[in-house]
Automatic annotation (TrEMBL):
It comes from Fundulus heteroclitus. This is Phosphatidylethanolamine N-methyltransferase. The lineage of its organism: Eukaryota, Metazoa, Chordata, Craniata, Vertebrata. Residues 102-128, 214-233 are cytoplasmic. The chain crosses the membrane at residues 50-70, 82-103, 124-148, 185-208. Residues 1-47, 69-80, 150-192 are lumenal. Pfam families: PEMT.
Protein backbone atom coordinates (compact mmCIF):
# COMPACT_ATOMS: atom_id res chain seq x y z
CA UNK A 1 0.00 0.00 0.00
CA UNK A 2 1.36 3.43 -0.91
CA UNK A 3 1.65 6.32 1.52
CA UNK A 4 -1.19 8.11 -0.22
CA UNK A 5 -3.42 5.03 0.09
CA UNK A 6 -2.56 4.69 3.77
CA UNK A 7 -3.35 8.34 4.38
CA UNK A 8 -6.64 7.98 2.57
CA UNK A 9 -7.40 4.94 4.68
CA UNK A 10 -6.65 6.82 7.88
CA UNK A 11 -8.90 9.72 6.87
CA UNK A 12 -11.87 7.59 5.89
CA UNK A 13 -14.53 7.80 8.64
CA UNK A 14 -15.51 4.58 10.33
CA UNK A 15 -19.26 4.65 9.59
CA UNK A 16 -21.64 2.01 8.25
CA UNK A 17 -21.71 1.68 4.49
CA UNK A 18 -24.43 3.84 2.96
CA UNK A 19 -25.01 5.82 6.16
CA UNK A 20 -24.24 9.18 4.62
CA UNK A 21 -24.58 8.43 0.92
CA UNK A 22 -27.82 10.39 0.68
CA UNK A 23 -26.25 13.46 2.26
CA UNK A 24 -23.07 13.20 0.19
CA UNK A 25 -25.06 13.05 -3.04
CA UNK A 26 -26.97 16.26 -2.29
CA UNK A 27 -25.69 19.29 -4.18
CA UNK A 28 -26.61 22.08 -1.80
CA UNK A 29 -25.48 24.71 -4.32
CA UNK A 30 -28.42 23.73 -6.54
CA UNK A 31 -31.06 24.04 -3.80
CA UNK A 32 -33.72 26.65 -4.51
CA UNK A 33 -33.59 29.03 -1.55
CA UNK A 34 -35.81 31.65 -3.16
CA UNK A 35 -39.02 30.53 -1.31
CA UNK A 36 -37.22 30.73 2.03
CA UNK A 37 -35.81 34.15 1.19
CA UNK A 38 -39.26 35.34 0.11
CA UNK A 39 -40.76 34.00 3.33
CA UNK A 40 -38.20 35.81 5.49
CA UNK A 41 -38.59 39.06 3.52
CA UNK A 42 -42.23 39.19 4.57
CA UNK A 43 -41.28 39.33 8.26
CA UNK A 44 -40.14 42.48 10.04
CA UNK A 45 -38.19 41.15 13.02
CA UNK A 46 -37.43 44.70 14.19
CA UNK A 47 -41.08 45.64 14.52
CA UNK A 48 -41.82 46.66 18.10
CA UNK A 49 -45.14 44.78 18.08
CA UNK A 50 -43.28 41.61 17.04
CA UNK A 51 -40.89 42.01 19.97
CA UNK A 52 -43.80 42.58 22.36
CA UNK A 53 -45.50 39.41 21.12
CA UNK A 54 -42.33 37.34 21.59
CA UNK A 55 -41.89 38.73 25.11
CA UNK A 56 -45.51 37.91 25.97
CA UNK A 57 -45.13 34.37 24.62
CA UNK A 58 -41.99 33.68 26.67
CA UNK A 59 -43.13 35.54 29.79
CA UNK A 60 -46.42 33.70 30.31
CA UNK A 61 -45.19 30.15 31.10
CA UNK A 62 -42.17 31.58 32.92
CA UNK A 63 -44.45 33.67 35.14
CA UNK A 64 -46.87 30.93 36.12
CA UNK A 65 -44.13 28.39 36.75
CA UNK A 66 -42.14 30.75 38.97
CA UNK A 67 -45.20 31.89 40.94
CA UNK A 68 -46.63 28.39 41.32
CA UNK A 69 -43.32 26.93 42.53
CA UNK A 70 -42.93 29.79 44.98
CA UNK A 71 -46.43 29.07 46.28
CA UNK A 72 -45.66 25.37 46.61
CA UNK A 73 -42.52 26.15 48.60
CA UNK A 74 -43.83 28.96 50.84
CA UNK A 75 -47.67 28.88 50.67
CA UNK A 76 -47.40 32.66 50.41
CA UNK A 77 -50.42 33.15 48.14
CA UNK A 78 -52.58 30.82 50.21
CA UNK A 79 -51.81 32.84 53.35
CA UNK A 80 -52.42 36.11 51.52
CA UNK A 81 -55.85 35.06 50.17
CA UNK A 82 -56.83 33.04 53.22
CA UNK A 83 -57.25 29.75 51.36
CA UNK A 84 -55.42 27.78 48.66
CA UNK A 85 -58.58 27.65 46.54
CA UNK A 86 -58.94 31.44 46.36
CA UNK A 87 -55.22 31.79 45.73
CA UNK A 88 -55.33 29.29 42.87
CA UNK A 89 -58.38 30.96 41.33
CA UNK A 90 -56.68 34.35 41.53
CA UNK A 91 -53.57 33.05 39.81
CA UNK A 92 -55.79 31.38 37.21
CA UNK A 93 -57.50 34.68 36.43
CA UNK A 94 -54.13 36.39 36.03
CA UNK A 95 -52.98 33.62 33.67
CA UNK A 96 -56.16 34.03 31.60
CA UNK A 97 -55.58 37.78 31.30
CA UNK A 98 -51.95 37.21 30.32
CA UNK A 99 -53.04 34.72 27.67
CA UNK A 100 -55.57 37.22 26.32
CA UNK A 101 -52.78 39.81 26.12
CA UNK A 102 -50.54 37.31 24.33
CA UNK A 103 -53.25 36.43 21.82
CA UNK A 104 -53.98 40.12 21.22
CA UNK A 105 -50.32 40.98 20.68
CA UNK A 106 -49.90 38.09 18.22
CA UNK A 107 -53.06 39.08 16.33
CA UNK A 108 -51.84 42.67 16.02
CA UNK A 109 -48.57 41.52 14.48
CA UNK A 110 -50.32 39.19 12.03
CA UNK A 111 -52.64 41.97 10.89
CA UNK A 112 -49.98 44.65 10.53
CA UNK A 113 -47.26 42.63 8.83
CA UNK A 114 -47.32 41.36 5.26
CA UNK A 115 -49.27 38.38 3.99
CA UNK A 116 -47.56 35.78 1.78
CA UNK A 117 -49.19 35.00 -1.52
CA UNK A 118 -48.34 31.23 -1.60
CA UNK A 119 -50.31 30.86 1.64
CA UNK A 120 -53.38 32.60 0.21
CA UNK A 121 -54.93 29.38 -1.02
CA UNK A 122 -58.34 27.90 -0.31
CA UNK A 123 -56.94 24.61 0.97
CA UNK A 124 -54.57 26.44 3.33
CA UNK A 125 -57.47 28.52 4.65
CA UNK A 126 -59.64 25.50 5.38
CA UNK A 127 -56.73 23.60 6.89
CA UNK A 128 -56.29 26.55 9.25
CA UNK A 129 -59.99 26.36 10.13
CA UNK A 130 -59.62 22.64 10.86
CA UNK A 131 -56.64 23.27 13.13
CA UNK A 132 -58.58 25.88 15.10
CA UNK A 133 -61.52 23.50 15.52
CA UNK A 134 -59.15 20.77 16.72
CA UNK A 135 -57.27 23.17 18.99
CA UNK A 136 -60.46 24.50 20.55
CA UNK A 137 -61.71 20.94 21.11
CA UNK A 138 -58.48 20.01 22.90
CA UNK A 139 -58.47 23.13 25.07
CA UNK A 140 -62.15 22.96 26.07
CA UNK A 141 -62.19 19.21 26.70
CA UNK A 142 -58.98 19.48 28.74
CA UNK A 143 -60.52 22.23 30.88
CA UNK A 144 -63.68 20.19 31.45
CA UNK A 145 -61.64 17.12 32.42
CA UNK A 146 -59.37 18.97 34.87
CA UNK A 147 -61.65 21.68 36.20
CA UNK A 148 -60.51 25.22 36.97
CA UNK A 149 -58.00 24.40 39.71
CA UNK A 150 -56.67 21.37 37.86
CA UNK A 151 -56.09 23.50 34.77
CA UNK A 152 -54.45 26.38 36.59
CA UNK A 153 -51.79 24.60 38.65
CA UNK A 154 -53.95 23.63 41.61
CA UNK A 155 -51.45 20.83 42.34
CA UNK A 156 -48.93 23.45 43.43
CA UNK A 157 -51.47 24.84 45.89
CA UNK A 158 -52.10 21.46 47.49
CA UNK A 159 -55.36 20.99 45.57
CA UNK A 160 -54.50 17.54 44.29
CA UNK A 161 -56.74 15.36 42.15
CA UNK A 162 -57.75 11.93 43.42
CA UNK A 163 -56.26 10.20 40.41
CA UNK A 164 -54.57 11.03 37.14
CA UNK A 165 -56.91 11.96 34.28
CA UNK A 166 -56.45 9.48 31.45
CA UNK A 167 -59.62 9.97 29.40
CA UNK A 168 -60.13 12.21 26.39
CA UNK A 169 -58.21 14.30 25.42
CA UNK A 170 -55.37 13.01 27.61
CA UNK A 171 -55.50 9.68 25.82
CA UNK A 172 -54.44 11.55 22.67
CA UNK A 173 -51.69 13.75 24.08
CA UNK A 174 -50.29 14.32 27.56
CA UNK A 175 -50.58 18.10 27.34
CA UNK A 176 -53.74 18.83 25.32
CA UNK A 177 -54.16 22.34 26.70
CA UNK A 178 -50.75 23.42 25.44
CA UNK A 179 -50.89 21.71 22.07
CA UNK A 180 -54.49 22.74 21.51
CA UNK A 181 -53.48 26.35 22.08
CA UNK A 182 -50.56 25.93 19.68
CA UNK A 183 -52.91 24.46 17.04
CA UNK A 184 -55.17 27.50 17.43
CA UNK A 185 -52.31 29.91 16.78
CA UNK A 186 -51.08 27.88 13.83
CA UNK A 187 -54.58 27.81 12.37
CA UNK A 188 -54.90 31.57 12.84
CA UNK A 189 -51.59 32.11 11.03
CA UNK A 190 -52.68 29.93 8.10
CA UNK A 191 -56.07 31.62 7.84
CA UNK A 192 -54.36 35.01 7.74
CA UNK A 193 -51.63 33.81 5.31
CA UNK A 194 -49.19 35.27 7.83
CA UNK A 195 -45.50 34.31 7.73
CA UNK A 196 -44.86 36.14 10.99
CA UNK A 197 -47.74 34.16 12.49
CA UNK A 198 -45.94 30.93 11.66
CA UNK A 199 -42.78 32.21 13.34
CA UNK A 200 -44.68 33.29 16.45
CA UNK A 201 -46.46 29.93 16.59
CA UNK A 202 -43.07 28.21 16.52
CA UNK A 203 -42.02 30.39 19.48
CA UNK A 204 -45.21 29.36 21.31
CA UNK A 205 -44.50 25.68 20.70
CA UNK A 206 -40.91 26.07 21.90
CA UNK A 207 -41.99 27.96 25.04
CA UNK A 208 -44.53 25.25 25.86
CA UNK A 209 -41.98 22.52 25.19
CA UNK A 210 -39.60 24.08 27.71
CA UNK A 211 -42.42 24.58 30.22
CA UNK A 212 -43.41 20.92 29.94
CA UNK A 213 -39.83 19.85 30.68
CA UNK A 214 -40.06 21.70 34.01
CA UNK A 215 -43.71 21.14 34.92
CA UNK A 216 -43.99 17.42 34.19
CA UNK A 217 -41.34 16.08 36.59
CA UNK A 218 -42.26 18.59 39.29
CA UNK A 219 -45.94 17.64 39.18
CA UNK A 220 -45.02 13.95 39.32
CA UNK A 221 -42.90 14.70 42.38
CA UNK A 222 -45.83 16.42 44.10
CA UNK A 223 -48.06 13.37 43.66
CA UNK A 224 -45.29 10.99 44.69
CA UNK A 225 -44.92 12.93 47.93
CA UNK A 226 -48.70 12.74 48.45
CA UNK A 227 -48.68 8.98 47.91
CA UNK A 228 -45.80 8.52 50.34
CA UNK A 229 -47.64 10.49 53.01
CA UNK A 230 -50.69 8.29 52.51
CA UNK A 231 -48.62 5.15 52.99
CA UNK A 232 -47.29 6.41 56.32
CA UNK A 233 -50.72 7.36 57.65
Amino acid sequence: MSDSDAAAGRKKPNVPLGCCEGLNNVDYSKMDLIPIEEFIRHINFRDSSFCIAVIAIIFNPLFWNVVARWEHRTRGLSRCFGSPYLACCSLGLVIILLNVLRSHSMTVVMKTQARWEPMERTEVFYFGISLMVLGTLLVVSSFLALGFTGTFLGDYFGLLMDEKVTGFPFNLTENPMYWGSTANYLGLALIGASPVGLVLTAVVALAYKVAIRFEGPFTEQIYQQRNQRRKHQ
